[in-house]
Amino acid sequence: GIGGIILFQHLGGSAQMELKLNTLVWPLVAIVLGGTPLTGGSGGPQRTILGAITFTVFYRGLYLSALHPTMVTLLVGIVLIVSIIVSARGLKGVTVT
């Protein structure tokens, strides 16, 4: 809003646009870890909150272990892929209407 316009002029009229994939992927990981399938269906806010707590504990553990940030991102991606595979196997044979 207005604060962005004021800050834009304060910075000399230049803006840096940067896409941070972490801010897009982390909520997805929390949702999938909570057990909500990407195809929709069963799930809920309680499961999503549980997934968010699980992901936060996992991420903070990786962060505190002093791993390189690229390695942390790789491990988060692996957790996401494994969670999706486990979720898809649980939905095998289930029809969504």
Automatic annotation (TrEMBL):
The chain crosses the membrane at residues 24-41, 72-91. Keywords: Membrane, Transmembrane, Transmembrane helix. This is Uncharacterized protein.
